Every structure is written in structure tokens, then in C-alpha cells.
Amino acid sequence: MPERAIAQTMDIGDCDDLPARSEQPGDDRLGLVPRHAEIGQFNEPSWAYWHYRLGLAKPGRLPPLPTRRFG
Questions:
Q1: I need a surface site. Which of 9, 19, 29, 51 has the fewest CB within 10 A?
Q2: Residue 22 has what pLDDT?
């Protein structure tokens, strides 16, 4: 599950950790990870950082973290 490993690195690692991965994902692939994130994969600061860093959100327009929905 490479996307899960990338999400974990994006959440608890830093920019220097990503190029160290053998796959060296580009911004296109990295952008897919937050778009398809599962509940709990990102903390709030990482969620905001990566959305802004990858151009997935404009300032003040950050999407909410994934949440559970019942009903």
C-alpha cells in the first residue's frame, strides 16, 4: 500500500523524508494522497501544509479533514 506509506511520511515526516523514499513520488502523485486520504491519516497541521504546498487549496479555503459519517 504505497499511498498509505506516503501519507504516513507526509503526516509525521518532513520534506527531506520524501525524496529519501525509493519511489520519489512527484507532486502529481503526492496530490492524490490527500485527495483520497482516510480518516486519521493526517493531523491538522500536516493537512493544511500539504494542501497549500501542493496547490490543492487556496488560502482560507482548506477542505475539512476526513471524518466518519453515520446514518
A1: 19
A2: 46
